[in-house]
Specification:
0% strand, binds fe (ii) ion, mainly alpha
Length: 258
């Protein structure tokens, strides 16, 4: 695809193989901040736009054709299955592992490194937010997207959901993504970009490496949802026969049936 500084970050992330790795390296937010143009994102991060353009072109050239799935071409159901089988699984596994690691590292190093207390608190908050967030996606939003896609494939009208329009749960999920993104930034700041001190043991080093890996995976996960799944689901609903946008805005609790 054509890479220009007026292209949005989300289109580059979806269309240029390897682009998300480039954005991770340069610290460009491509999941919740994907609506910005490349020029705006670079300006915000104080980076020369030419450096990013060059790296994106290199990444596109270096990737093997077909090495990454092009989620713009696949079904939404396949995308939800992929998200659950890879990102949700990884997130749950890592939240458990990291919680134990944090306990261990804090008990040994907390006295000399009080920032670990702050980092652990932020991590717990992230865990408490992400577990119900993924459940809501798996139990409510993703099944509705699948039913909607099945109806669209059969040329049938979409059965009206109890939450009015798919835009309502999507809006809530995107707000929760922003909160998670803020907690990740706080964790990165508290840990000095995951830099271990000179006296760090192997567990301490493992914890920080794993946190950095967790962050990268969550960025990719949110990118797939915000910039591909949710946008395409909204378009699909709007194109459905007989669709009328609800003007009501159910609150968060009604949306998910609590
Ligand atoms: Fe998710
Ligand atoms: Fe999500």
């Amino acid at each position: 695809m054509n890479i220009s500084d007026t292209t949005t970050v989300r289109d580059l992330a979806a269309g240029v193989p390897g682009a998300t790795r480039v954005f991770e390296t340069f610290g460009i937010d491509y999941c919740c901040g994907g609506h910005r143009t490349l020029a705006d994102a670079c300006q915000e991060a104080s980076l020369p736009v030419e450096d990013l353009t060059h790296s994106l072109e290199e990444a596109g050239r270096a990737s093997q054709p077909g090495a990454e799935r092009d989620w713009r071409q696949e079904s939404l159901t396949a995308l939800t299955e992929y998200i659950i089988d890879t990102h949700h699984l990884f997130t749950r596994q890592e939240l458990d592992r990291l919680e134990k690691l944090f306990d261990k590292v804090y008990s040994r190093h907390g006295e000399n490194h009080p920032e670990l207390f702050e980092a652990q608190k932020t991590f717990y908050q992230l865990k408490q937010d992400l577990i119900p967030h993924m459940l809501k996606e798996e139990q409510v939003l993703f099944p509705y997207i699948t039913r909607m896609e099945e109806a669209a494939g059969g040329g049938r009208a979409i059965p009206p959901p109890f939450f009015g329009t798919v835009q309502n749960p999507v809006r809530i999920m995107m707000l929760e993504h922003e909160t998670a993104g803020g907690l990740l930034r706080a964790l990165r700041a508290t840990t000095g970009d995951y830099t271990t001190p000179a006296d760090a043991c192997v567990s301490y080093q493992t914890l920080y490496q794993a946190l950095a890996g967790f962050e990268a995976d969550l960025h990719q996960h949110i990118h797939l949802e915000n910039n591909l799944l949710f946008l395409r689901a909204i378009e699909m609903e709007e194109a459905a026969p007989g669709f009328q946008r609800s003007t009501s805005q159910p609150d968060e609790h009604r949306c998910f049936g609590h």
